Structure prediction request, 962 residues.
Amino acid sequence: MNPAPTATQIVADVRRGARSARQSVEECLDAITARESDVHAFNHVLADEARAAADAIDHRVALGEDPGPLAGVPIALKDNLCTRGVPTTCSSRILEGWRPPYDATVVQRVVAAGGIVIGKTNLDEFAMGSSTENSAFGPTRNPHDLTRVPGGSSGGSAAAVAAGFASLALGSDTGGSIRQPAALCGVVGVKPTYGAVSRYGLIAFASSLDQIGPFAATVSDAALLMEVIGGHDPADSTSIASPAPQLSAHLTRGVDGLRVGVVQELLNGIDPDVAARVNQAADALSAAGAKVDEASVPAAVYGLSAYYLIAPAEASSNLARYDGVRYGLRVPGKDITAMYSATRAAGFGPEVKRRIMLGTYALSAGYYDAYYGQAQRVRTLIIRDFDAAYERFDVLLSPTAPTTAFAFGAKTENPLAMYLSDVCTIPSNLAGHPAMSVPFGAGDDGLPVGVQVMAPALGEPVMFRVAAALEGARP
Amino acid sequence: MTDTAAAGTEAAAETPYETVIGLEVHCELRTRTKLFCSCRNVFGELPTTNTCPVCLGLPGSLPVLNRQAVELAMRIGTALQCTVEPSVFHRKNYFYPDMPKDYQISQYDQPINVDGWLELADASRVGIERAHMEEDTGKTRHMGGGGRIHEAEYSLVDYNRAGVPLVEIVSRPDIRSAEQARAYVSELRSILVATGASDGKMEEGSLRVDANVSVRPRGSTELGTRCEIKNLNSLRSLGRAIEYEAARQWELLQAGQAIVQETRHWNEAEGRTISGRSKEEAYDYRYFPEPDLVPVAPDEAWVQAVRQAIPTLPAERRHRLAEVAAGAGDAAATVVELDLDTLVLAAVAAGADGRLAVMRAANELAGNLEEAHRLDPDAFAKLMLMEGQGQVTATQSKQVLAELLAGGGGDPEAIAKARGFEALGADALAGVVDEVIAGNPAEWERFKAGDPKISGFFVGLVMKASKGQANGTEVRELLQQRAASDG
Prediction:
């Protein structure tokens, strides 16, 4: 699907002058010209800016300088990452016209490493959704089948990598928003340990769950981007005070002797063809020397319920600032209250409004303890169950999503059915643990299936080891 | 309330009701930068020029806690005898245009300082419930209409103040009069300044006071329904507003009407409080722990270091002064308030009389504070000794002191000599006294008979004859001696 060279290959070639950064950018722009009108991965393509950045990289190479570990790699950014002077919309009408005066930390790091921003990708409005159908600017289509959704909320980033519009992409994952679209688009997607990647400049959905992470065509490309974006950032108080782990070195270590658990609770309600691929992946790891067994994380089944209290509660507060006073959309009203109401009524889509109302209710006086408080206790239980499982296993395995890419409109009428798309991915967000989706064969419909590898906090090295092994064994 | 909390309420004692007051004081901390970003913490810049993505609450920005603000908050708590505890920031959610995020980062059920007290100059104690950290909002000016947001044609917002660190100090309802409320705020202010936490400028809004006021019949121990009065920008407003509000509430109760729990605004020009939000209309702030910040857990070493760095506080300074200057009364409190107690204590250490030094400091130095703070302590001590020992009279001492102040120092002995202020020697004084007695035989008989009024007559004559160089105390002693031997 992705005909372009890998990011790792581009960096090596650009650094030794065997390929120009400009060439990589032009290849991506050609792919965009050919297919973007069908796929609609982007809210904003930065063609001229990318060309200029590529020429600057090539100039540095010509001077004998090293542009950095992402030298000349075109990268797509989810449109909830702040980019200085470039519209950043969260695919919402309410932010239309707003241009951030600053770059997100990850954007600074990518650019400083020689990466080239090629555009801002579509998402479910404010990252709320699992299909990218909630974008105010129209849905993104799955490059593998234009009648299907790419997943979400980072559907634009997943589709951009799958379609060769960019070699790498960044997304954000609050309940599965990187991993689920990665699975549905057949690419690698990583949700790092909470705090491993700075959130500064990521427009918040649910602050205690949000993490930025990479999309890539290969596991090693994902590792490359992780190494650039990870590490402590003093601008984010929840950032872990240690440098980014070196992951590339772990990719070839194999899985001999590793203990791999298949989470039984996360195989319930999964399409049989998807579940079959997970079991096949477990067998492949076993054949490669891993000790595979059944694992149990009993509280994981309550994850979805807890998530749909915690995430909306935090969102109801995070999204309060879109009030028409200072930036973005303003719809006039007879007084300040009327202006607030008119602006938010016109600026937010139905899913965002639904979650703001859910969250507002969950935090209300008299209900806090029964809803938000109870959900936080469930979160503690999930962490405890994961901790117990990780005493027996180095990594855990599950499907990334219950199904392959579904058709447009299949779940839009029933929010709960849509929410179930994230049943396997949500527990890692609640626990703050790293998890990633690796493409592993196809379902009965011929569409990609993703297998999820989960690890304990800061377990990225072992997680990437297992992911690399799965990639090597994929059917 | 504490036993002594009702002291200083003589003014209110005439009313049939008792006023119960709790104060919430917002104190802007004197940090170098704002609470959650690196914008400078300064007053008086052009509107919204001292801002950044964080204090403007721009999408994607995140707060990072200012260590210096935590340190100052701990100083305040420690100075108010609070316990410093591990604390958590919460979000207080409500919509208002001067609040960039439409929530305020504040502390809720786990504040940094809990359970302390403040001792006032009259030795009464007011309990402190908590002193917690929070961020300030921007400033809104409503243009047109009555100055309130819903009547305004338009409003202007200045976000320079947004994110300035505040500590909110919440007292227990231990205050019983407007006078005591003012005393509490001025004592609190002096502590905030002494600890370096605040510049204490009420006029610049560095210190802002809200008052919770209720009334009850004298003798009752139940708390009445309270109103919270906002917009108190000076000690004068605070006092006036409390007195007005208490009278208003009592009048309502006397008329058989209930007090409605509400927020009321003090209108300085009209001299009355005006109804604001009622309890029914009160916001549901939907507090929840701020997920963008981690809990604040100062280690024991830090807490101890803060404790040790606290300067001696006014109450303790008043006690120290009282020990060496018994009977100085209010003058001792004045001396501490004017920051002249170090000077007095140095004089006492050099052997001077404490009460004398306090009186001279309170009366003679108070009018020239700037000079007084530059005064050479040794010179002051020496002068107090000279006066105490009768080498100069009170009148002369005051003149020497004035010259010391004007010159920033000097040798009091040399100044006294240059002015011819040497007190009369014992023999010369005795001569003058005898002359005066001889010249007024009839009055002398009355003196010997013990007429108290005539003593001043003789002292005055001696003073006049000696051109003010006699020491009044010595003159009295001599007169007594003569009367005894002339019996």
Notes: The mean pLDDT of chain A is 97. The CA atoms of residues 333 and 339 of chain A lie 4 Å apart. The longest helix of chain A spans residues 369-392.
